[in-house]
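Hey L., structure's done. Input below.
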Amino acid sequence: MPTSPREGQPTWIDYTCQEFESTTNFYSEIFGWEFTDQGPDFGHYNMITKGGATVGGAMRAVHMDGTPNPLAPAMWTTYLHTDDVSGVYAASLEAGAAPIAEPMAVGPLGQIAVITDPTGAGVGMWQPGEFSGFDTPLTPGTPVWFELMTVNYPVANEFYGHVFSFDIIPMEGFPYATHGAGDDAVAGICDASEWTQVSFWRTYINVEDVDATAAKVTALGGMVLAGPEDSPYGRIATVTDPEGATLQLQQNP
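Output:
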């Protein structure tokens, strides 16, 4: 995966939930993650790290004004790199996206915005300032792949190609495309219309042993939705945490 972010490359993930302490304890047990509160100036947003590598962020579900949002489901959000968050945000709305959070500065760290794409998936954008995004050492407990599961594959390809400058490379024999080819690929778009009624972005977290991790997920109150099963890209399982947010587990081939 390229280390210098290109336009549209996933550069950050974060998590929102209701029961913050118990759910973050779940992730600490599963992946060995550490959560560090950034204090009141950042709304008690937590940075997630693993072995010194920055993995993402986490916080309780709140409204934009900072008040608790008890109706918000637990979920992971993927953020895509951009050098022009205002321009990409405007272009996304013109292309049929719906606004969630308009561009705003996060101190000196960078600028953020969040939309719902035209196929119904929530996705963020990040223009770096002092902070570029997560680390991707591709080691256990860190993110290794990101993909949009969409109910409208043609619209998704057109939207991300136009708005986020995805270099759409179709996969032969399967309705799947990547942003970039081969080792330069940084994200995928999958026609998931046979398996889901809603579009969403999902993240793959590398683990040493998918079967053992999936069993631990169940023991700690999560669920295994699919797998574990072998694939050309390693052994894979789809799981949820105790609040229902989904993640992919990936073990190297």
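Helices lie at 20-31, 85-94, 153-163, 210-219. The two ends are 17 Å apart (CA to CA).

-- N.
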